[in-house]
Write a structure and sequence with these properties.
There is one protein chain. The protein is 19% helix and 49% strand. By secondary structure, it is an alpha+beta fold. It has one domain: Alpha-D-Glucose-1,6-Bisphosphate, Chain A, domain 4. Strands 1-2-3-4-5-6 form a six-stranded antiparallel sheet, with no helix packed on it. The radius of gyration is 14 Å and the shape is globular.
Amino acid sequence: MRRWFHCRENWSTPEVEVDLRVGGHIRVVMRHPDATEEEMGGTFTSIDRPRHLAMTWTFSEEPSDEQALELCFSESGGRTTVVLVNRRIGSGERRDLQHTGWQGCFDELARHWFAGAVV
């Protein structure tokens, strides 16, 4: 995740902690090109391998804005489709930022995947 889980190609992810079990936590630190950092994370609420993953999600600068994330995975013809649902977002501005951020993370995953660099 450190290689690809960030919003832009020129960002980095210096820290990731994942305890992938119901009740376990995820913590991510993303670094901007100007060296400022954003910390986010949550708690896994549901895991149905390999089809479904749900968690809470908060940002360190807005800890009271707890969101709900769901990721659904399906496979067909050797291809995997990922559907991300992000609910309980506190404002339209935050929603727009997260739409851009999640799209960037998926773009980075694809860029690394097709380069053969995903681990």
